Amino acid sequence: METIVTVATLVLLLASLLVVNRARKEAHEERESARLEAESIREEARVQLSEAQRREERVALTERQAADDQRNAQTYARSLEERVNVVAREEKRLAREREQLAVDFDDRLAAIAGLSVNDAREELLARMRASTESQIAQEAHRRLKKAHKDADREAQHILVSAMQRQAAATSAHGAVTRIDLPSEEMKGRIIGREGRNIRAFEALTGVNVIVDEGVTAVHLSSFDVERREVAEATLTALIDDGRIQPQRVEAAYAKALADAPRRAMTAALDAVEHAGVVGVPQNLLALLGALRLRASYNQNVLAHLVECAHLAGEIATMVGADEELARRGAFLHDIGKALTGNHEGTHAQLGARVAREAGESADVVNAIEAHHDEVPQQTIEAVIVQVADAVSAARPGARRDDVDSYVERMQSLEKLVEEHEGVAHVYAMAAGRELRVAVEPNVVDDDGAKELARTIVEHIEKDFSFAGEIKVTVIRETRADFVAGQA
């Protein structure tokens, strides 16, 4: 038993020794770790202290440099101020010397010329003024010619650009209207049994119906535009219906007559829309609708107004004018043609009057009234309207003269030129746009030919009404004839 106790005691002692040794070892390790950590902290503190010392040294160096720079700047400023003062004193001295030299020069010049300073100055100024005025006049003349040339070139560019942007088709009234048929069999229906349908149609409408073989169409012939328009509406309705009888012809004709105001208003509204004009009064729309059947030199007036509106708008945009005003004035400028024949006055006067009564602005009224120079143009837009009217009317193919009136105009033009002394023959060419004048060489010499051409042009401009330009070419020919013969 004692042995067991002794063993247990030894075991306890051994365990205690182990615990003590382990505790000592851990304590030693902790002390060593603490020592190392303390050394690391002390080293870091030494590094930070060294860095702080270096920063303080740099700050001190910077402050010393700033102080040196300030002292240098103050020194430079004082030096610069001294230089400025020296330059100012030198300028004053030079100014006094220059004034003295000028006085001495005037005195010496006056002594040499025998004139006073004021007399010499006046004479010099007079000579310089005369020379300068001549140079200014020559330069002004050159600049004026250049300005005219540039203005003509710019005007041509504007007109060409405006015309290029317009793709309006030539719109001309004729005496015949073509109506296409859906089939050849429709011709028989239009003629009717023993021609009763066509006779009823012609008697009712006053329009001749031309039926040609081999063409799937018929033609309505009449010099009365309104009759032909009603007949076209009547026949179109009959063709669409397909049942053509004398009774239906009468019904279709009555309906076509009743629908004439509606067709006129539709044409007017379409024209307003295509022209880009808004707010046209109702009474003006009625007049515009009537113009769909009016023609000037076979040019449809309503189509002419739409084309003029586009041209005026383009020109106004390019020259910086009021586009809306120019477009509106151009669209309404010929509206008075719907009243001519029933009212006194020119179409420009009638158009201006009805536009004024409809509440149009004074500028629009002036553009309408002045487009044929019956009154002066008051705005640049009124001039643009006149230009657009001339461009639309004078372009090739826009207007077509009747044969009789065309021949009469050409003969009157040739007769007018033949009145001049020395003229042998006159030939109107290119639809009257060019005149070839042959003169007697023993009456008109070379210099006289030029003068005659100018005189003829002035005579035409004064006494002959025309649109566009007429080129006059005077031809003088000298011939020498000899006859060779043998006995």
Structure description:
The chain is mainly alpha-helical and 487 residues long. Among the domains are: 176-258, Ribosomal Protein S8, Chain: A, domain 1; 273-394, Hypothetical protein af1432; 403-476, Alpha-Beta Plaits (2-Layer Sandwich), CATH 3.30.70. Helices cover 68% and strands 8% of the residues. It has helices spanning 2-113, 117-164, 185-191, 196-205, 225-241, 246-258, 260-275, 282-290, 301-319, 323-332, 347-357, 362-369, 380-394, 403-418, 446-463, and strands spanning 176-180, 208-211, 217-221, 295-296, 299-300, 423-429, 434-439, 471-476. α15 links the parallel β7 (434-439) and β8. The model is unreliable at 169-173 (pLDDT under 50).
Question: What's the quick description here?
Answer:
Helix content is 68%, strand content 8%. The protein has 487 residues and is mainly α. Helix 9 packs antiparallel against helix 10 (323-332) and helix 11 runs antiparallel to helix 12.
Per-chain topology:
Layout: H1 2-113, H2 117-164, E1 176-180, H3 185-191, H4 196-205, E2 208-211, E3 217-221, H5 225-241, H6 246-258, H7 260-275, H8 282-290, E4 295-296, E5 299-300, H9 301-319, H10 323-332, H11 347-357, H12 362-369, H13 380-394, H14 403-418, E6 423-429, E7 434-439, H15 446-463, E8 471-476
Parallel strand pairs: 7-8
Antiparallel strand pairs: 1-3, 2-3, 4-5, 6-7
Helix pairs in contact: 2-9, 4-6, 5-6, 7-8, 7-9, 9-10, 9-13, 10-12, 10-13, 11-12, 12-13
